[in-house]
Amino acid sequence: MRNFFRGIVAMIVVTFLAVGSTMPSDAAPRHRPAPSPVFDGLWSVSIFTLHGDCNRAYRYPLRIVGGYVLKADADSSYDVAGAVARSGAIGVTVSGGGQSAIGVGRLTRRAGRGVWHTANNECRGNWTAERRG
To answer: Does the predicted model carry a pTM greater than 0.85?
Structure first.
């Protein structure tokens, strides 16, 4: 499980619950938001584990293109799928090595924050993001 978080969960950057403890309806993984290019660009995301036996903190790059969340590196050991709504609500799923994690939250034009958890709820925490460039 630790290796999963070294290369994958750190990308949950942007792994996001609208700053509170409820998921915004336009960021829920089961209801994909209409993507918005307002947040396009390179983002630096910091992931923090608050519960569970997963690595405690990471910082990773993430790219948003046409409102869709993509990984910003060529590492093929994991996949990222997600979108950002015009409101800034974001939902992301990161998977690799037979495991997955879900993140939700909200972006502004320059920053963001939210929460994440593994699909099996073994680990959970929060994330913050800063827009680069």
So the answer is: no
